[in-house]
Amino acid sequence: MKQLESKVASFLTSSNYNSARLVKLQNALIELLEFLDPKYIRFPKDKRSKIA
């Protein structure tokens, strides 16, 4: 997970990115977590906020 975080962070600081696409991806991942872990057992609720 840390490797993914690092790559996303470096991508966001570059001048060549499509933020709308990353927002859609992040929102889809949050929805997947809601489907796979509806009772917040593995991923706490406070760590699941969607970005705008």
Q: In a nutshell, what does this entry contain?
A:
With 52 residues, the protein is an all-alpha fold.
Features:
single chain, 52 residues, mainly alpha, 2 helices, 58% helix, elongated
Task: Note down, in words, how this protein is organized.
This protein is mostly helical. The protein has one domain (2-47). Helices cover 58% and strands 0% of the residues. The chain has two helices and no strands. It has helices at 2-13, 19-36. The longest helix has 18 residues, at 19-36. The model has no long low-confidence stretch (mean pLDDT 87).
Topology:
Blueprint: H1 2-13, H2 19-36
**Count of folded domains:** 1
Give the radius of gyration: 13 Å
Helix segment count?
A: 2
Could you name the ranges where pLDDT drops below 50 across 5 or more consecutive residues? Answer: none
Mean pLDDT, to the nearest integer, reads 87
Order of helix and strand elements from N to C terminus:
HH
State the total count of DSSP E strands: 0
Which sheet architecture does the biggest sheet show? Answer: none
State the helical fraction.
55-70%
- Sum up the overall morphology in one term: elongated
Percent strand equals: under 5%
Instruction: State the secondary-structure class.
Output: mainly alpha
Distance between the termini: 22 Å
